[in-house]
User: Fold this.
Amino acid sequence: MAHTPLVSVVIPTFNSANTLPRAIMSVMGQRAISWELIVIDDGSTDNTLSAIQQYRLRLGDRMKYHRQKQSGSSVARNAGIDRAKGEYIAFLDADDEFGPNKLLRQLELFCRRPELGLVFSDFSCIDVNGELHRSAFNELVEEEGPVRMEEIAPRQFVCDRRLVDRMVVSYVISPITAMVRRSVLGSEIRFPPGQQYSEEWLFFLDVAAKCRVGYVGEPLSLQHQTPGSLSLTSPVRNTQHQAQAMQRILERFPEASSDARRKLQGKLAHCFRQMAFDHFKSGEFRSARTAFWKALQHHADWSTALHLAQATWAARTQRSAEESTQVPVQVG
Assistant:
């Protein structure tokens, strides 16, 4: 008889042969839940297949493995969603792991409140220095303050209907913390490909805009930060990706409150100012001028206007110097 799962767990992986077995074992350790595991191999060139072979043999039809050409984590997660058979879908990254009660505790909240379409949780994190952060969610949302929610059972909450406004302003839900009702996704809601940094933010905004959201106030997953992550290795490029994400959110969620949009506009202006300073320090004065101008468009202030004037003067001086060094071509 074919296995009919309650939860589909999707793991995208790329060259993670060393950590993927740990992630798989954390799914196998889930308590009293009917699940299937879907591993999407995004064109790995290491020994991923051989590293998970024993688990494929042990799990049989409970584990699906699909290999695709390298297309990025969004395409990989979407491939998992499209193959999922469970009523609910959970996401796990190949270098992270679930706690043993992850699926059970989230399903309990779904059962208590059937109108929920998405449930997320607190999580723990081991940073690049090996330090354990037991309640990483509270650290994640600290800047904007706590998310408004109502406790309906011990450590189980239903989020305020204004959660979307809160999510417009800042990143709140990461994939390893989430479980989503598959029917909410339908055929329309997917991770947007090619949106590095913002794909998770946009995906969960789309989900939260469509349904009520619950929260389990326990760290149910463990994230392992690695030195190779984009946010740690390329701050300049990461700032550019953040700005692109914020611009797309402003375009896609015009129904957000004016206060939420104002806060996001301020953050976007800060990103453009940071990019402008980076360009200016590198002697890229024309690019700095453009970035300062974009910052002013999102948040007007005298300091940015002054820096724009300085960048404009520097760009003109640089252009004049370049023109004066050009050697005229002799004809005839």
